[in-house]
Structure prediction request, 116 residues.
Amino acid sequence: MMYRVEVTIDGVVYPSYEPAAKALGCTVGNLWFARKAIGDEVVLFGKKVTFRDTTRTTPNSTAKPVRCLETGEIFPSISAATLACGLRCPHNMSEAIKWGRRAGGYHWEFMVKEKA
Prediction:
């Protein structure tokens, strides 16, 4: 999975849909549908619910850093860059890098790690 959705219910932060749905007494599908239909800030069952995408990173990650050619901004992974430019699927960005095309309106490249 390229991203995780952090859900905040009346100021209490839950790391994903599952514990948030349990706290609200609804299904994950209800939360997902509310977000897609209404947006990132909704009121469900009289409670303010906010959704936020967060990237998953691990210390032993094999992710390759990528750089935006137009802005020079460097991201730790394709997933992070995908979220930053508003895309949902990192596959589109990896294909754009592979074929020299645009993703999210920009050109991208993998950062080459120099050997010591």
